[in-house]
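Methods, example record. To illustrate the input and output format used throughout this study, we show the complete record for Ferritin-like domain-containing protein. The sequence lines were provided to the predictor; the line carrying structure tokens was produced by it.
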Amino acid sequence: MNNGNPTLPETGGTGDVLPNMIGRRKFLSYVGLAASAVTVVACSKDKNDVPEGAINLGSGDIGILNYAYALEQLEAAFYTQVIASPYSGMSATEQALLTDIRDHEIAHRNFFKTVLSGNAIPGLEVNFSAINFGTRDSVLATAKAFEDLGVAAYNGAGQLITSADNLVLAGKIVSVEARHAALIRDLISNGSFADNTVVDANGLDVSKSPAEVLGVAKAYLKSVLYAGNLPTS
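The corresponding predicted structure is encoded as:
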């Protein structure tokens, strides 16, 4: 963090870096987020019907920010593992790009933790037993699923945010997540930045409710999240 702004490090590509590497790296360029521009109100500490051992996300904008924080924790943990144990045959180009994404997700995670401060949920325990980190297909398919889910989550949560400042924050982050999603699709199949699985008939990105998103995400979490106090409209 630098004066409240997460700084995303750029990593230098080596080896078989593609001629258009610089363009792809710029494609992932990060929009700075100023913590001072975010409105954080007191958490209501709602605990209605929270299952024993579950983590309560909270209510109102705090709940939505914790919801986003949970997803960023999941993505940061995934990409950290990807880079810690590169899959067989990972090229220098792919390692550089995936490292950039890892750094973005870590910055997002740390940003939410700082903004939420005492209202932040604890660190989550992940469950990646279904992912084969040794193969490119498994890693990129999972990355695609996580990025698509993240974009849909931010799109669905936007209408639930009451603070204009928080809405701007979500808009900045979802633009970065959308770049991630397009980049991963391009790595899987060059030129395939999006398709009808993530874009609806009106040409708009798909959106999902917190209940839908967490229903998918829970397969990759040991921690149990309770979203019963999140706004629904």
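Annotations derived from this record:
Residues 21-226 form a domain with the Ferritin fold (CATH 1.20.1260.10).
The CA atoms of residues 6 and 15 lie 29 Å apart.
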